[in-house]
Give the backbone structure.
Amino acid sequence: MSISIKNRHRALVQAETHLHPHGRVGQLSICLVSPSRYQTGMSSLGFQTVYALLAGSVDIRCERAFLPDRELLEEYRRSGTPLLSLESSTPLADFDVIAFSTSFEPDYLNIPIILTLARIPHYSGSRSQSDPLVIAGGAAFFINPEPVADFIDAICIGEGEDVIPAIVATLLSPVDNGRRGLLNALANISGVYIPSFYQPLYHSGLLTGYDAETGAQMPVTRAPVCLEQHDPSASQILTENTEFGDMFLVEVGRGCPRGCRFCSSGFIYGAFRQQPFENIVALIDAGLAHRSKVGLVGAAVSDYAGIGRLCSYIVEKGARVSVSSLRIDRIDPDMLDALIASGHKTISLAPEGGSQRMRDVIRKNLTEAQILDACEMLIERDILNLKLYFIIGLPGETDNDLDEMIRLVETIRERVLERGRANKRLGEITLSVNPFIPKPFTPFQWCGMEPLPSLERKVKLLEARLRRLPNVKLKVESLRESYLQALLSRGDRRLSALLVEMAEGANLKKAAKSCGIDTAWYVERTIAGDEIMPWSIIGTAEQEMLRREYERAMAGVVD
């Protein structure tokens, strides 16, 4: 066993502060695995919440593992050491259960890498009774688990607060018939999906349905939890070796009330739910003993009913506050003053649609006047550095819409410069541009992603037009990485072989050719309205509503 790997693990653990220490004994051993590297994985509030739910059981010994960084990955491969847990340097294959917590589809690429390092067979059907049970959950699996379904024994579709205790109780209960009997028992839990119980059926390349075993849920239901019955999700382990290492994180709400047609957050979590103010404050008071900065987390933080009061409370306690997102039409003055008092020099806003027509198509429900008013509110407070998020390649977008985006940026820039001249201080506008990625369980799930050559042309157009504007910077998300994300968002189980090829070092193009997969067919085509989609296995109840919204968008209907 490599001493350097053990030393790296020991150093990370020694740098951590566990706010709720748990014992390391228990009749069942579970390794919670993030397919991200430690710096990112430990920043995930979802990962930390699952860890608290598992480690809080006296019957479980819960440890953690992460995708090794490049240097450590080479050390693993050079030494031949199997992937080890962080706490006790135990090989992952020696645990009873491996539990993946996965927030983003690109992390699907790392699941076969981790299984290879752990010396666990990639495919669930190839595992023996002596192999760990491999389970998985997280936001990515709420959207579309199918590209990695063949790798996983059991998938949590429901939210962890209710599903995980039920899974733990089942894992701790005696069952007959070994691994098969355990899967049968897990299948009875609402929100648990056993992929091996469902065989996809294809005809002429199209998915036509699933052959489900007798008694298997069809589709697998997912019920949102009542947040008031649970403590808010918050940091459990603090360490400076992460992306948000200087913050104590608290979730203020779950889901989103907006229903933007391109975004899954407003659809996969059910109704928008908010944590009681008093519950959040109690956690913040405890967290301030360890950190002087509080990060408020949620898909719609600005929509939290007491956001201004909450931000003011944090600042009054002598701490700083940060929020994960701002809604242009919900900028609370008290929240804004608290952010400024916390030292924020740049504020991010998300018009997303470059023109009014595009904002109407995506159901953003924002007018240009509202965008300019929000910018003016910031500029009046001497916030002269603005970050603006836009999406290109939206369904029906034309060059005229890009022209409108540039005109809007020019208008905002003039207002920033006017204030800057008065204060003798220059500001900067950063455009963060991302390509549209069709997501399951949204009205735009039927839409194809715009082909890369067309997107590349639009990026060049923006670069040429914005180059002449001083104090304006353009940042564009990698188009090829976005293409891969779209592939994983819309893919089915036939992608599992491609992911294994990529885990072994092949790039996407080479892996697709080797596996006979036409990636453009998955990514770029418009899906027919009556076609069965891979993610239909985990819920179809809302499809009629989504289809109506899609048709309204294509018809240009404005709410």
